[in-house]
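User: Fold both of these, please.

Assistant: Here is the first one.
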Amino acid sequence: MSLDTSYRERRLADRMQDEEFRAAYELAAKEIAQVDSVMRMIDDLRVEAGMSKAQLAREIQKNPASVRRLFTSEVNPELRTVAAMASALDAEVVIKRKRPRRRRTSSTVAA
């Protein structure tokens, strides 16, 4: 038996006609994808290290159930927790620019 999602899909299609809604939806989708990517990388590092989720939780002094939820649920982990997990896996969290930023020019000078 499959779940009928046609109403949800039609409702979303209708709402996507609104530019403001579409912009907010697309921004949220990008943010969620980035969080998911970070969590997948941490999980890959955990597996490579041969560490269970419970072991990782003990290493960062967190409840094992809460760490398991970070890997299995749609949650937004605290950056401090992400950094602690990365550190426990001998990794680091790095933010990098996707493309070079344009330099701002100070062509207008106040008199």
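And the second sequence with its predicted structure:
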Amino acid sequence: MVGVHKEELIKLHKIMAEIKDSFEAANPDYDFSDYYALKIDPSQVHKSKMEHKHAIFVLGRDIAEIMADSEPSASKRISARMDELARKTQKEIDYLS
């Protein structure tokens, strides 16, 4: 996500949040607790670019984990990569704080 503007990240965050909402509407038992713990949503434009990027990776991981139930092989790899990126951005946020 090098060279991506904050506004573009916020748009992507919004789209992924809508996907999350669709999953939750279909099955309220899906777990997005890690995302909710971040206390950030796409409407919070005052949050940093890094915080939105981190939220995207956490949501991506969670969505991929849910999708892994129907297509395990590809979704597991995506989930693992998103988790790796989420951890990396969390370290960057911690370093900058």
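The mean pLDDT is 89.
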